[in-house]
Each structure stands twice: as structure tokens, then as C-alpha cells.
Amino acid sequence: MTEAILRQIINYAHRADPYPLYEELRKTPVYHDADGPFVLSRYYDIQSLLHDPRISSDARNLKTPATANPLAAEADDETALPPSFLRLDPPEHDRLRRMTNRPFGPPHSPRRVHEMHGELKDIVSGLIDGIDNPDRIDLVDQFSYPFPVTVICRLLGVPREDEARFHSWADTIAASLDPDPGADTDERAKVSHNARTELGMYLAGLIEERRKKPGADMLSQLSTAGGPDGVMTTMEVLSTAALLLIAGHETTVNLITNGMLTLLRNPDVLERLRKDPNLAVPVVEELLRFEPPVQLVPQRTTLTDIEVRGVTIPKGASLWLVLAAGNRDPDRFEDPDRFDPDRGDIQHLGFGSGIHSCFGAPLARLEAQLALSELARRLENPRLLEDPPPYRQNAVLRGPRHLPIACDGIRP
């Protein structure tokens, strides 16, 4: 293998189908070239390192120059705020994650996601009802993009009249995560900075309102709830809300869009889902293995020298964990390049694993299950208009930028 393998993975020309490159990469389970990152691509190695306390998520522990990581910008979901818990190690990571989890899930709020079911279904129905031309539908712009950001607005407690502004900020920030070789970088940076600043100021105002008059929404609870870990500062609430918006939104957009693309390429499964919405549960789990919305984690480093398969990875080295390659490792999954929701054991890496496993996984699962089952039920004879569709530039958050489809009509 040559240095070209990593360049090919990053190269947009391979975005539509990077899986042959991942297959090649797995032949060298611990790949390293010159000053570049150490790249791991086998399932059991990745799973082990995601649980290894010697692996850090805090960039301050990285000894490799940031310029040596060509994917740093593509994975950057931060603002000018303090790092979210995604970028921290214990004990600070654990404190902030516990505090965020109190209003979001078990044991303190075990029914938060379950109780959103009706509201999520209403949002899905409204978006499908809004499709005015079944001859050409852009599933991303008309469905996959607006759905998760609307959900996050409702979760945080953004007033309905402000949701359009929130959508605009989210769109701008999301666009800034995708490299654009032909664009004016200074202008892009300025537009992104302005959107992040406006969003931060808006959320700061909302936080102050909620502290004075809290409601049942998550932003109120993050701003006011106490406990063994104390109360979050305004800046901590801001960075957590920004994480929920950016990381949660982008991954769910890709999960739904990759999901519909995969179903349209597997019409037998799509027809089964149309007849049996309960199939959505194993379909989404297999999608998280087969087409994970986060392809790789390029922001880990070693806190000490560690050995993997006889290779010593030195302290402070940059690690890439290629989740999508691990998800198709034939040592873990039989016939891994086949989409099969009937697999008996889909222990995928689609949401990561260990202490940094995806915080929003329960909500993302429910969103994708509802979205795909309703699209399957209501779109009459859906079909792809472009295959492959145009993809986002981003190699980390991989998914179609547009998904042009058509159908014969919209069922009630």
C-alpha cells in the first residue's frame, strides 16, 4: 500500500463509494506513513481503542501538528465556545455528559425520547404533505435536512416563530463543515463566524429567559437543574446546545438520506418496510453498519505509548479510527458488503462505542425509524433519478448533498 490510500479516501472522486478503499486499507490494520496519522480499520481494534482509557479526545494532548491532519476541518463541529464534552476526557467529560443526560435520558428522564414520538411523527407527516411535485423530489432539501433541525428546536424549546431563523443558522454552519475548494475561504469563514455568533447570542438570550421562567424543555433543564455535579455555566450550556445542534443534526441528515438511498437500491427491503413498519428497527441498525453517517473518527490521540498488532503507537500520536471500514470487516461480519436487515447480530460501530458513544443515539434511531417507515409507506413507487447522487465534500460526515427521486404520487 502506498501513501495514496489516505489521499484517495479524502479525494472527493471516491466519495460515492469509498468501500473498496477501506477494503484495501484493512490489509494494513495499523497504517502509518511518515508524519501522518496512525489509521486503524479492523473492527476489533477500533472497538478496543474506543474503550481504552489511554486514548484521548482532547486535542491538547496531541503532539502532531494540526496541519498533519488533513481532516481536522471536516470533523470540526466546534464554535468559539469552550470544548463540548465530545472533545474532553474524564473527569470533565463525565461531569458534563452526566449533567446533559439528566434532562435527556435514563435514569432521570427515561421517557424524554419516547414521549417525542407523536411530535416527531407529526413533523414527518407535515414534510411529506408539503411535497408538491412527485416527479422530482430532493429528499435532502425537502425532508432529511429540515426534519432533524426542527426536532432539535422542539427539544431545546426554541419558540416556533424563531424556528426559521434557527434553520438558517444551522444551514450556514452545516455548509461550513464541507470543504469547498473553489470558494473564497475568507468569505466562507466570515459567513460561518457570523452565523455561529448570532446563534450563540440568540441561545444566550434564550438561556437567560429560561433561568427566569423555566419550562419543560431541555434548555430550561440544562440551565436550571442542579444535582451532585452542580449547575452548568452559561458557556457550558451554550457549548452543549451547539453540540446537540451541529453534531446531532448532521449525523441524522446523513442517516436518513443514506438510508433512503440504500432502500431504493434494495427495492425488496423497501417493499417489506412499506408493508411492515416494525422492520424499521433492524433496517436502521443495519444501515448504521452498512452506511454509517460518521465514516471515521480523526480526532483521537494516545496518552502513552501503546501497542496494536505489534505496532507501537507513540504518546501524542494522531489516531484515525475508520468506523466504516470496521463495520465491513469480514472477520466480524459475514458477507459484509451485503445490506441485510435480517442479520442476527448487528453490533455495529455506527454510533461509536465506549464513553464517547453517540449521546443522541436513542433520538437519532427513532427519527430514522419514523422517517424511513413513513417514506416507504407514503411514496408510491419511489425511484432514484440519479445514481450515484451528488455527495457532500465532507469525508467524515459522508452523505448525499442532494437525493433526487421521483414517485407516482403521495399516499395519505
Topology:
Blueprint: H1 4-10, H2 19-26, E1 30-32, E2 38-40, H3 43-50, E3 55-56, H4 92-101, H5 117-129, E4 137-138, H6 139-144, H7 146-156, H8 163-176, H9 185-212, H10 218-224, H11 234-265, H12 267-275, H13 280-290, E5 297-302, E6 306-308, E7 311-313, E8 318-321, H14 323-326, H15 361-378, E9 379-380, E10 383-384, E11 404-406, E12 409-410
Parallel strand pairs: 2-8
Antiparallel strand pairs: 1-2, 3-5, 4-11, 5-8, 6-7, 9-12, 10-11
Helix pairs in contact: 5-7, 5-15, 7-8, 7-11, 8-9, 9-10, 9-11, 11-13, 11-15, 12-15, 13-15
Could you provide a short overview of the structure?
This protein is of the alpha+beta class and about 400 residues long. Helix content is about 45%, strand content about 10%. The protein has a single domain (about 70-290, about 330-410), classed as Cytochrome p450 (Orthogonal Bundle).
Description:
- The chain has one domain: Orthogonal Bundle (Cytochrome p450).
- It is 45% helix and 8% strand.
- It has 15 helices and 12 strands.
- The longest helix is centred in the middle third of the chain and has 32 residues, at 234-265.
